[in-house]
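# step 3/5: fold
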Amino acid sequence: MLSEHQTNVRLGVNIDHVATIRNARGSSYPEPVRAAELALAAGADGITAHLREDRRHISDADIAVLTDLCLKRGKPLNFEMAVTDEMVGIALQARPHAACLVPERREEVTTEGGLDVVRGYDAIAAATARLRHAGSRVSLFIDAEAGQIEASHRLGAQVIELHTGAYCDAARAGEVDRAAAILRRLQDGADLAANLGLEVHAGHGIDYATVKPIAAIPQIAELNIGHFLIGEAIFVGLPEAIHRMRALMEAARAELAA
């Protein structure tokens, strides 16, 4: 049986790609803050936004408005950011509930793989200390590898977010054995992290077809989902997309608890 804290899994909604659509025309519409308002009204537990160095979607002004909205609604803003002096400075000024440190390369279409905490230990540790001192919970977006998880714990992160993209890609491609092997690594990584006292989140590439096996990992406290929900919203609306995703998440936990 699952303990009470394991029976629920939170849903953070990433609204980056509302800004992508806005920026494609160089206009002021659609507004990411409106998507955030709809997401929270539909039952999202928090909002995630990634301020990239090249500002390809979310802007500095968006972060200011989203910070204000989340404070007023009493909901967390998860500020995804690269480990750079510029981004740390912005986070220190905005003081989001959570700061999720992610790898970032200018030429990538989306985040590719997890942060290499082992190789970048000193810089990540310094950023983590500054962000924690300012009152933000620090999360590291990493692959489910023991060395990365243990290094995240040593440097003082409170949360890790496991990169689920490889699992989702394999599952959608029908690569059953590969998907099963990656899922086992995610399960083992979540177990190790929880035993070290880290809160465990997961995200990247999750859709309706892949969410239940991930949500069924009992140590995972939160899923952060964006691209699929924004894409699905084109056809059914954002509230309906969120309602269906949450229903699948809850069904996975209910099956686990039975």
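# step 4/5: annotate
The beta strands are 10-14, 46-50, 77-81, 98-101, 137-142, 159-163, 199-203, 220-225.
# step 5/5: archive (pending)
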